[in-house]
What we know:
By secondary structure, this protein is of the alpha/beta class. Helix content is 47%, strand content 14%.
Amino acid sequence: MSDDESYEEMEPSLKNIIDQTSLKWIFVGGKGAVQLSYHRESVLLISTDPAHNLSDAFGQKFSKTPTLVNGFTNLSAMEIDPTSSLQDLMDEKNDGASNEILGEIAHAIPGIDEAMSFSEVMKLVKSMDYSCIVFDTAPTAPMLSSMSGLMGGAPPTEDMFQKLEGMRETIQEVNKQFQDPSKTTFVCVCISEFLSLYETERMIQELNSFHIDTHNIIVNQLLFPKEGSNCEQCLVRTKMQRKYLDQIHDLYEDFNVCKLPLLTSEVRGVEAIKKFSKMLVEPYSAEYK
């Protein structure tokens, strides 16, 4: 059996995510949200990246309040800055004793500010009626660890968390859904190089340890040299990429591996994003040789 034939055993796209209509929480990114919006009644896209990459990508200002994306009737987006969550909560409390407790929590548990931000987002999302929620930025390992600690047993700071109304309960409820593969899945994104492949494996192991489903990988920035090309750098890099792409297929034979080309321009603006997002569900036509 040739490599190309073996590659085709698993659909090389994210179409499986669209077909799985039970999914509620999807870690895939903005371009995936666009395709989901064509098949779901309503989609909410959330970014926790302080750089506000959604606003840059769509050319539209987003905030912590869900806003309809220009050009769509059922796709909304919001941006949350996790680094400001703790300070916002302290400002809201405006209470010396409460602020002292919050300060203790912030220093006691790495990533807790993100967990608190996440909890607040979940409270908001639960009060809305979206078919599915897409996270443009994956939660960091410290935040996942904090969430996991809150769920299992009684952590040393239990008395502190009891003072944060609803946080533990919300995170427990969300985490239960995150561990349900019928409701949640995580799409890994990498490039075909050693370090990226290594980091992807670490991420997959981490997700497995938290019992979060992952069975899709997007490989970005692949070169597809034209036949007869004599660009030495392109050919050398293509050969290297092919080596690591082979390893990806060997390591993750039960994963859907979506291969995306290196582009000659940025994907910015609604129309460009719509066009690019098609490649997530319709495999790129150029053969990778």
